[in-house]
């Protein structure tokens, strides 16, 4: 497993060393260029100076001391050679390397005994004066200068490494504190991680984790609520089914047994509907699989729902009509259809025979509006704020139901960032459910 601390340490120190070597290399070539210019000038000035004062007798009668530069070391000696073209005589300090005769005046690079020499030649009458120096001298001087540049870095490197280690450690300390804080947590704890004193780079990560834990807490809460509600609500129909089975087993006559089977079938249907509603509600809870959004033509959808519910309404001689003005929104079409179907089915259940239900769609202030109105018994004002709670049913309600239909409707509207309002229905009686949804393109495509 890779360590951020080690990576930062080795990267910074490595970069520092590489930068030092690059600096030394640049210093070497820069110094070599400077020494070349300086020493070339020295060779030229030496040759020109000798040209003005040289006499052959000086080299015959005296042994001249080789001139030096940059100290007294023999490594820095330069070689002087004077050739007399009239007598073919050569004057050269004792023990010095003989230089080849130049082809022309000026600077030239010569290869002598596998060594490279820089020479400068000038003529003074019949005399040819040549001054030379080994190129290795210049390379050594440049290398020495580069080493002196790099030497402080090597001496300071351990101290720099310690400083980097301390700085990196201090920078990673908040991350380590956060790690210890998370490690000490209970597996069931979903409280947000403290962001006090966190650097900006870590604050974003911890904030994102806190948001994730909030959504996870909501999801777990929804699952626990679903399991609790399901266990509570299924107990009653299952108990009733069990009782009807026992009564059917004890029935003395075929008529009594048939009556038990009819009630048993009703109980199974109610339990089946309850399970279907519970599963629908669970799929709409937070962190469920995201559904694809699309453009929904509510007027056409209202017509389709009306046609689907017509056979059910005809059984109670309830008349359903549609006022489909153009209205468009964006969302999950299956969910919106389920919402309209639940509200229409709810109206059919509570509206007495011979009643009237109307589905209306329109656009108001760039927002889509759906209204489902009936002329049934209506909903008391004091109950309107609670009818969307799960399993809530008003006192005195005689119509069978699960208490989940309106909870599903509310959840679908919340997902689509809409609102729902309960008002008086048709002919100043009954109930109207008014749903307002955002205009096309206004929805955030994220399940709330």
User: Spans with pLDDT under 50 lasting ≥5 residues?
Assistant: 59-66, 68-72, 443-448
What's the end-to-end separation, in Å? Answer: 38 Å
Q: What integer is the average pLDDT?
A: 77
> Strand pairing plus helix content: what structural class?
alpha+beta
Please provide the count of β strands.
Answer: 12
Q: What is the share of helical residues? A: 40-55%
Number of helical elements: 8
Largest sheet: 5 strands, antiparallel
How do the strands line up in the largest sheet? 2-1-5-4-3
Based on CA atoms alone, the radius of gyration comes out at 50 Å
Shape: rod-shaped
H/E series? HHEEEEEHHHEHEEHEEHEE
Proportion of beta-strand residues: 15-25%
Detailed description of the structure:
It is a single chain. The protein has 448 residues and is of the alpha+beta class. A hairpin with a 2-residue loop joins strand 3 and strand 4. The chain has helices spanning 4-53, 56-61, 135-183, 200-250, 254-283, 298-315, 333-350, 405-415; strands spanning 79-84, 89-91, 106-112, 115-124, 127-134, 294-297, 319-324, 328-331, 356-364, 367-374, 419-424, 431-437. It has eight helices and twelve strands.
What is the element layout, followed by pairings?
Blueprint lengths: L3 H50 L2 H6 L17 E6 L4 E3 L14 E7 L2 E10 L2 E8 H49 L16 H51 L3 H30 L10 E4 H18 L3 E6 L3 E4 L1 H18 L5 E9 L2 E8 L30 H11 L3 E6 L6 E7 L11
Parallel strand pairs: 7-9
Antiparallel strand pairs: 1-2, 1-5, 3-4, 4-5, 6-8, 9-10, 10-12, 11-12
């Amino acid at each position: 497993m890779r360590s951020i601390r080690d990576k930062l340490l080795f990267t910074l120190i490595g970069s520092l060393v590489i930068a030092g070597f690059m600096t030394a290399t640049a210093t070497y070539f820069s110094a070599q260029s400077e020494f070349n210019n300086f020493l070339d000038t020295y060779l030229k000035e030496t040759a020109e100076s000798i040209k003005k004062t040289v006499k052959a007798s000086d080299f015959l009668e005296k042994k001249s001391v080789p001139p030096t530069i940059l100290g007294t070391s023999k490594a820095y000696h330069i070689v002087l050679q004077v050739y007399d073209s009239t007598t073919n005589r050569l004057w050269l300090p004792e023990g010095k390397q003989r230089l080849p005769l130049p082809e022309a005046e000026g600077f030239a690079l010569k290869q002598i005994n596998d060594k490279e020499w820089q020479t400068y030649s000038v003529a003074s009458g019949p005399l040819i004066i040549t001054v030379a120096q080994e190129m290795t001298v210049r390379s050594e001087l440049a290398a020495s200068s580069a080493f002196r540049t790099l030497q402080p870095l090597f001496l300071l490197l351990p101290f720099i490494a310690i400083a980097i280690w301390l700085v990196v450690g201090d920078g990673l300390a908040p991350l380590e504190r956060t790690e210890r804080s998370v490690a000490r947590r209970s597996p069931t704890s979903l409280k947000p991680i403290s962001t006090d004193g966190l650097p900006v780079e870590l604050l974003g990560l911890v904030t994102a984790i806190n948001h994730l834990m909030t959504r996870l807490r909501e999801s777990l809460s929804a699952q626990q609520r679903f399991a609790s509600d399901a266990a509570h609500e299924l107990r009653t129909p299952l108990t009733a089914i069990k009782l009807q089975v026992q009564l059917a087993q004890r029935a003395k006559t075929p008529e009594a047994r048939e009556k038990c089977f009819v009630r048993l079938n009703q109980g199974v249907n109610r339990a089946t509907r309850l399970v279907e509603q519970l599963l629908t509600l669970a799929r709409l809870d937070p962190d469920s699989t995201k559904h694809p959004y699309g453009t929904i033509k509510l007027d056409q959808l209202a017509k389709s729902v009306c046609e689907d519910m017509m056979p059910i309404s005809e059984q109670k001689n309830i008349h359903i009509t549609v006022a489909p003005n153009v209205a468009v929104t964006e969302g999950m079409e299956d969910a919106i259809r389920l919402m309209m179907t639940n509200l229409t089915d709810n109206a059919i259940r509570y509206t007495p025979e011979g009643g009237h239900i109307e589905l209306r769609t329109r656009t108001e202030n760039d927002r889509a509006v759906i209204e489902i109105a009936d002329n049934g018994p209506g909903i008391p004002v004091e109950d309107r704020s609670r009818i969307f709670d799960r399993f809530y049913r008003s006192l005195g309600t005689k119509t069978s139901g699960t208490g989940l239909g309106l909870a599903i409707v509310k959840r679908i509207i919340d997902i689509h960032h809409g609102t729902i309002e309960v008002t008086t229905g048709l002919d100043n009686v009954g109930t109207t459910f008014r749903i307002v949804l955002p205009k096309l393109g206004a929805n955030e495509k994220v399940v709330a």
